[in-house]
Design a protein that fits this description.
By secondary structure, this protein is mainly beta. The protein folds into two domains: 8-207, Jelly Rolls, CATH 2.60.120; 212-310, Sandwich (Jelly Rolls). 9% of the residues lie in helices and 36% in strands. The chain has helices at 149-157, 189-192, 200-207, 211-217; strands spanning 9-11, 35-40, 52-54, 60-67, 72-77, 82-88, 91-95, 102-106, 111-114, 120-124, 130-137, 146-147, 160-162, 168-170, 208-209, 223-227, 232-233, 238-244, 259-265, 268-272, 275-279, 284-287, 294-297, 304-310. Strands 1-22-19-24-18-16-17 form a seven-stranded mixed sheet. The protein has a seven-stranded mixed sheet with strand order 3-2-4-11-6-9-15. It has a five-stranded antiparallel sheet with strand order 8-7-10-5-12. The longest helix has 9 residues, at 149-157. It is globular. The N and C termini lie far apart (62 Å).
Length: 326
């Protein structure tokens, strides 16, 4: 039997523990119904109430956001990569200082490598509760969230204050900033000028991959979605692969780095020396480095999963505007 410390660690979708007070917009109308999940690594939550399922990181963090229809996540930025794929629902992503520079709508299975260093937000525009899964670059996920100034100001009007220490204080609970802790300063106009405002036409070709395109690409071998030589060429500190039924590995493999398996469609039988289990959509599985394992669909029908592996690339900004045509 495989020793527990070398067996895969699995967080089941049905066991995810949400936090409804994770960020500064938790009381802001239109954003006050969202749920935040921290699955692997500490993530970027600003709340001490956030539950972390697996604290050890493989060089990146895994999280998720669940939102009912018409609920949105406010404009913010990160210092490292942020990649989303849609597990369920229909989502509109928008970006820019005021959220008006560009937008894209993603369906189930689509993936978006959001350009580092831009303000971004997203909302569930489907008819039911939806879930998006996130990969954040770096072991510490870049040290937190950078909020657009209007988000901080609006939150303050609804009782939430963000300290310069990165923690939230809720006046509705009788909390106030502790002695010696200043409010998080708003970005200045000079600082705001450093945040790019790329158009939709600039972003989509190099940063969005559609589910059915990936299914076609993975008809014989797993498709490298994000990586130096991937469909979306980038080096954010990890690589993302897409496996379909047609490209499911026939033999067991043992990687020299930990990897994370995240099913999108279908049921996947994961086997390793001394054990096996079935992974379902929404489950997150951390496979230790050096463990021989194989994952293959366990039932007929459509099946797809994303596999994420860390690299030695820095987790900092990598996005650059496309060169002008001509």
């Amino acid at each position: 039997m495989t020793p527990p410390e070398t067996a895969p660690r699995i967080v089941r979708y049905g066991e995810l523990r949400p936090c409804k007070t994770a960020f500064i917009d938790a009381h802001t109308p239109g954003s006050d119904q969202k749920e935040n999940f921290t699955i692997i690594g500490g993530g970027v939550s600003e709340s001490p109430e956030q539950h972390v399922h697996i604290r050890e990181t493989p060089g990146f963090n895994i999280g998720a956001a669940g939102q009912p229809p018409k609920c949105r996540n406010s404009l913010h930025s990160h210092r490292t990569a942020e990649v989303f794929f849609v597990l369920s629902g229909r989502w509109r992503f928008f970006w820019g200082r005021w959220g008006s520079a560009g937008e894209v709508v993603l369906e189930e299975g689509d993936i978006f490598n959001i350009p580092t260093g831009i303000f971004r937000g997203f909302e569930n525009i489907g008819l039911d509760y939806g879930m998006i899964m996130a990969v954040l670059g770096g072991d510490d996920a870049g040290g937190g969230v950078i909020w657009a100034p209007q988000v901080i100001e609006e939150a303050r009007a609804h009782g939430l204050m963000l300290g310069a220490n990165g923690r939230l204080y809720d006046s509705k609970k009788g909390e106030s900033l502790p002695p010696g802790v200043d409010p998080m300063p708003l970005l200045t106009e000079a600082e705001l000028a450093g945040f790019p405002e790329p158009s939709t036409a600039e972003v989509i070709p190099d940063h969005v991959a559609r589910y059915w395109d990936l299914v076609a690409l993975a008809d014989r071998a797993p498709a490298l979605v994000i990586g130096e030589h991937g469909l979306l060429r980038d080096r954010p500190g990890f690589e993302v692969f897409f496996h379909s039924r047609a490209s499911a590995p026939a033999t067991a493999r043992a990687g020299d780095r930990p990897e994370v398996l995240m099913p999108v469609r279908g049921h996947w039988r994961l086997t390793w020396p001394g054990g096996e289990t079935v992974l379902n959509p929404g489950d997150t599985c951390l496979v230790p480095a050096g463990l021989r394992h194989a994952a293959a669909p366990s039932m007929t029908g459509e099946a797809a999963l994303y596999r994420i592996v860390g690299t030695d690339d820095p987790a900092g900004p990598t996005w650059r505007p496309r060169p002008a045509a001509g």
